[in-house]
Amino acid sequence: MYTVSDFRKTTRVVSVRGLTIGGGPVSIQSMTNVPIEDAAATINQIERLRVAGAQLVRVALRNEYSLEYLKIVRAAVDMPLSADVHFNHRIAIGAIEAGIDKVRINPGNIGDDAKVREVVHAAKERGVPIRIGVNGGSIDRVKYPVLDAESLVASAMDHVRILEHNDFFDIVVSIKASDVRLTVEANRLFAATAPYPLHVGLTEAGYGLSCVVYSSAAIGALLLDGIGDTIRVSMTGDPVEEVVVAKKILEAAGLRTAPVRIIACPTCGRTDPSLDLLSLAQEVEREIEGRFGKSLELSGRGIVVAVMGCEVNGPGEAAHADAGIAGGRGGAMLLFSRGKKPRRITSGEAVRALADEVERIVQEGSE
Ligand code: SF4
């Protein structure tokens, strides 16, 4: 395996119900997309998000009436929750009193200084951090007629200074746009400007493949710069998918261990025509994930398994894999494993033989 340096940017650290944001591992966030007034659906969705790997879940509070439902959700959920509040300081204070762990509200939008002081007082009293969220679409275009990285950061700093003047520093900031370059440049600039942890993501990122690619480009670029302390992939649809993608982004950036990583070659003219490598790789993934995925994830370990199109180049190209198979001629395959002599098998035996080899490696690793 490769060695990477510790390149995380140092920021202040805030604690959200025991979850540290800043100065440590990058956490995964998501947001419910059902009204909190349907408390049962909200609780169910939060639980699905938790099981999928979300570490902090945000809920939108639309009015003071929502607070009664927040109390029900809070009583049922023992994981970090964040409240999304716009403008109304009474909702923010009510959420804090109801046991929310973090509030997303922009102090510059609250109204007057006295209201800000009330929110800050409540947040301080309960140790609740505040997230300032600046979006390209909601920036004050009278004050900032040009939408660029400088104006997004200046807008975020307007809100930051209000909290700082109130002697409040448990701040997380997000600066998002739907444009990848603008999001990356604005976050880079903010990271060079202020010491607060950053929640990074792309806003209005869409759905499906397009959302995955655009979000990965933006979030990935920042993470590889050492910027970003918590991430959210904003995706239209089931928010559980956001968490699945976020985990993959962290894995790709080397910030999370993939319990099972299947690598496969693209195939080429050397691949025997009888070999359907895509189907074989998917079958291998199902088998290895099913047998070892959960236990590897719980132990924080990972295994790399290769499915390659030919035995001429496959084992060499996948030399960093723990184990793998490579296609030969007419249904023959080669099973290879680090430190062991390759063994010839048939394609019919391939999945089972590879899984057994992985089992041996997993058992050896836990001894
Ligand atoms: S491993 Fe073999 S089949 Fe696959 S791309 Fe490389 S040369 Fe082609």
What can you tell me about this protein's structure?
The chain has 367 residues and is α/β, with parallel strands linked by helices. It has 2 domains: 14-252, TIM Barrel; 260-365, 2-Layer Sandwich (Sulfite Reductase Hemoprotein, domain 1), CATH 3.30.413.10. Helix content is 42%, strand content 18%. The chain has helices at residues 39-52, 66-76, 89-97, 113-126, 149-165, 180-193, 208-224, 239-252, 277-299, 314-317, 350-365, and strands at residues 14-16, 19-21, 27-31, 56-60, 81-84, 102-104, 130-135, 171-176, 199-200, 230-231, 260-264, 303-308, 323-327, 332-337, 343-346. The strands form 3 sheets. Strands 8-7-6-5-4-3-10-9 form an 8-stranded parallel sheet. Strand 13 (323-327) and strand 14 (332-337) form a beta hairpin. The model has no long low-confidence stretch (mean pLDDT 94). Iron/sulfur cluster (SF4) binds next to helix 10.
The name of the CATH topology of the largest domain is: TIM Barrel
The whole-number mean of residue pLDDT values reads: 94
Rg measurement, Å:
24 Å
CATH superfamily of the largest domain: Dihydropteroate synthase-like
Main beta sheet: 8 strands, parallel
Number of domains: 2
Poorly predicted sequence stretches spanning 5 or more consecutive residues? none
N-to-C SSE series? EEEHEHEHEHEHEHEHEHEHEHEEEH
CATH class placement of the largest domain: Alpha Beta
What distance separates the N and C termini? Answer: 21 Å
Shape: elongated
Q: Estimate the strand proportion.
A: 15-25%
Percent of residues in helical segments? Answer: 40-55%
Q: In order across it, which strands form the biggest sheet?
A: 8-7-6-5-4-3-10-9
Ligand identities:
iron/sulfur cluster
As an assembly, this protein is: single chain
- Category by helix and strand content: alpha/beta
| Annotation, overall tally of beta strands | 15
